[in-house]
Specification:
Layout (H helix, E strand, L loop, with lengths): L2 H26 L7 H19 L3 H23 L4 H21 L1 H4 L5 E2 L7 H20 L1 H11 L1 H6 L4 H27 L1 E2 L6 H14 L4 H17 L7 H15 L12 H27 L1
Antiparallel strand pairs: 1-2
Amino acid sequence: MSALISNIFTQVFITLIAVAGVYVLTGLTGMFSLGQAAFMAIGAYASGLLVIKLKLPFALAVLIAVVLATVVGYLIGYPVVRLRRDYISLVTLGFGEAIAALLNRMTSLTGGASGLTGIPRKVGLGIAAVSAVLAIMLVAFFKTSKYGRQCIALRGDELAAKAMGIHVTRIKMIAFLLSVSLTAYSGCLYAFYMSYVDPTGFGWKKSADWVIMVFFGGVNSLTGSTLGALILNALPQALRGLQNFRYVIYAVLVLLILNFKPSGLLGEWELTPRNVRKSAVKLKKKLGGKAAGKADKKEA
């Protein structure tokens, strides 16, 4: 495998982890966060600094960084999850911009606008791929668990969910913290793959890109969100030869899907053995019907 292909897939897998976190928040609970990239920044900077300054082992530094980001997520999420969904977007947007400004100003510690350098390269394609698979499996398990079903219930109607005895605030917080942990972990992997991080890579636009990927593939489908992340991550790299036109093609493709398939590429379809069997049966019947039609025409 060439270095270019390996680089593309490694970054795609790292992004898949963050998108899985966004799916938990947006796809399951209906909340929108434009500050998710800030938690990625916390994970990246915290793990990098722990290894560079304190000489901690890579695994321990990642664990501490994820826990730290989760604690910060709890402090932010405690008041945020009680707000209306549109206000959640505004508050998390402000939080994300505040983190970026803070990283820019802490020159002695984070390197400021110049970024944090000297992070050892500990992550490769294998670690990124295994991490992405485990993250997707974790989210799939969460979706089918009691908490996941409660998230889906409150996404549809919070008042009805409360009437059914669901503790809406607690369920939202659980989903928010799981989302934060996954995003922070993706930041750790990103830092130890790129060996360099700077504040400009963690702005609100990255958070918005993740939300677009979820809607592109299917906001109600983890499989669709994963597919959307794969396509929209790899597409700009594949179109690199077109230079200035690649982002135009990217934007047009996203707009076409969101306009003509509002539920995304896969809608609510999930990649499960049962759904695969159903799809295979439907395809077999369809092909059988076409073959019968052709046979009738020949006899006629």
